[in-house]
Amino acid sequence: MTKFLLDKYKGFEPYVPGEQPQGGYIKLNTNESPFPPSETARKLYTAAFDRLNLYNDPENTALCKVIADRYGVSPENVLVTNGSDEALAFIYMAYADETHPFVAPEISYGFYPVFSALVGAEKKTFPLKSDYYIDEAAFINCDDNVIFANPNAQTGTFMPIGQIAEMLKKPRLVVVDEAYVDFGAESALPLLKEYDNLIIVRTLSKSRSLAGGRIGFAIAAKEIVSELKLVKYSFNPYNLGRAAEAAAIGAIQDEEYFRKCTAAVIGAREYTEQAAKALGMTVIDSRANFLLMKCPTMDGGELKAELMRRGVLVRHFSTPGLSEYIRVTIGSMEQMKTFIQELKNIISGARI
Questions:
Q1: What percentage of residues in the chain have a pLDDT greater than 90?
Q2: How far is the C-alpha of 310 from the C-alpha of 321, rounded, in Å?
Q3: Measured between alpha carbons, how far is 154 from 156 in angstroms, rounded to an integer?
Q4: Is residue 236 a contact partner of residue 298, using CB atoms and an 8 Å limit?
């Protein structure tokens, strides 16, 4: 490190993205969709190319309207961002500091503690319950702002909106990160009609097949959206490019393709869960596009390495509570059958 780096960043631990290797791996490590963007998204994206010489609309008016229409809110309730990570960053920048922490689950999305450190907020967490579900009572009873993914990142477990409603009864912010909600969980969106202290964060990376487009959004009361725009316009007004916005509009409009893809992922998840359990694996109940599982005879890191040797890439976390497990993104049915076959070969001791 140079002498110019500010002291507050020395020893800083940034977020570590999943591997993006080149080569012929079956890639089941970063929770991407196995399906390409919809044809509607492709056409609108291509049409936007000829106008890339011009700045995009910083208000993302067209996309905000499409999102608002799709989710039954007003455009003034929508903030479009460069990936949902940027929405989370704006939330931390606007509402967290040394005296205003966000409490998160101990095991959840790895960016939450990073954002806390970035804005100088205390890192506060609650452990998960023994079944890897979020301890809803701990979040309901605390007085701090709270943030959690639902379904939860890394585990796939989910929280019913009745429990979220209980959290909202206190005068603090409740941020629900719904990156994986489209794969079988219940959205907290209906609660927006009653509670103005709720922020819902969404991404088009998973269920809308646009991970490479970096498109996210937040839905909240118009006053909160205005406050988040204060941060946005102080940081990066033209945050979402014209072509990405066009692709997002197409992806949201193509509801038939969206439903077809999510149904296929759910079907492949159910197949994978049952097949893995039949091999003796422990599998955590999931409503996301991934499964957290462990082998009775092998550590998670060893299993990840052995799968990689066989051309299948999965995610492993060395953090306490997760080190025994691997996290497996749900790909196409063909990919999941290959994964199960390789898992079977490993467990049976078959050589390659």
A1: 93
A2: 26
A3: 6
A4: no
Q: What's the 3-state SS for 3-48?
A: CCCCHHHCCCCCCCCCCCCCCCCEECCCCCCCCCCCHHHHHHHHHH
Model confidence over 119-148: pLDDT tens digits? 999 999 999 999 999 999 999 999 999 999
Which DSSP letter does residue 295 get? B
User: Burial of 49 by CB count in 10 Å (0-12 exposed, 13-18 middle, 19+ buried)?
Assistant: exposed
Residue 286: DSSP 8-state:
-
Measuring CA to CA, which residue among 339, 155, 126, 59 is closest to residue 67? 59
Distance (Å, whole) CA 103 – CA 109: 12
Give the E-state strand segments of the chain in sequence order: 26-27, 78-81, 102-105, 124-126, 145-149, 174-177, 198-203, 216-220, 282-283, 290-294, 312-313, 325-329
Is the CB of residue 147 less than 8 Å from the CB of residue 102?
Answer: yes
Q: What pLDDT digit, counting tens, does each position of 52-111 carry?
A: 999 999 999 999 999 999 999 999 999 999 999 999 999 999 999 999 999 999 999 999
Residue type, 270: E
**The two structure tokens encoding residue 78:** 């929508």
Q: Are 307 and 343 in contact (CB under 8 A)?
A: yes
CB atoms near residue 47 (< 10 Å): 12
Cβ pair 33, 268 in contact under 8 A: no
Report d(CA 283, CA 80) in Å as an integer: 35
Nearest to 139 by CA among 181, 165, 107, 103: 103
Q: Residue 29 in contact with residue 19, Cβ under 8 Å? A: yes
Nearest to 85 by CA among 147, 142, 138, 140: 147
